[in-house]
Amino acid sequence: MANERKFIAENVRRVLLKEYLMKEVTRAGFGGLDVQRTPMGTRVTLITERPGIVIGRRGAAIKNLTRAIEEDFKFDNPQVEVKEVANPNLNAQIMAEKLAFALERGWHFRRAGHSTIRRVMDSGARGCHIIIAGKLTGQRHRTEKFKEGYIKFCGEPKLTNVERGYAVAKLKPGVIGVTVEIMRPDTKLPDEIDVIEPAVASEKFPELAPLMVKKEEPSVIVPNAERDEEPAPEGEGVDDTMESEQ
Fold first, then answer.
1. DSSP-derived pairing of the beta strands 175-183 and 78-84
2. Which fold has domain 89-183?
């Protein structure tokens, strides 16, 4: 098999695993998945809002997940690790699922969108962007967007600093897609520059101290022809020339 086919097959397998775990741990609040290959096997890190539900009584639930990952998805010796989300309001996937669940309970989309974006911004996020698309008020498909704070839409800051989550709300008129994008509080953008005073900088970075020595400006030497000379008194220059001629 070509290398390209191997990469594609591996990514498809990871996407299917993510979809399976999202369905299995919905009650626990799915917040993300990380799959890493190690010499001992495959480490699967599951991020949830309530880890106790995923682990189950005496670890029965997590044993079933481990068996399913090994048998159904063909991962070698999987080791499932469950982590708790520090702040669920800053996790894009959890907030997208909560927003979709609110729509399924009958909340108006504007009320649900503004409530979600307020919770995210109150938790300290730099920016939040919410997109709700589907049959919101009638038979026509429409898209509503909610934005607050500072958000990036392209480039490297978008890839590294913006977290994206997606969920689906199933209603009688049809399916409504919910997308939540959150810019983390610790984000530092390329145009944000901190100017440090030389004294403080030399303390923090001793290796730069020799480069911070103030150089003395070189003195400018003025040629003799350009110096300002005092003019001779009237009559002195003329008498001297006449005496020298005599």
1. unpaired
2. Ribosomal protein S3 C-terminal domain (3.30.1140)
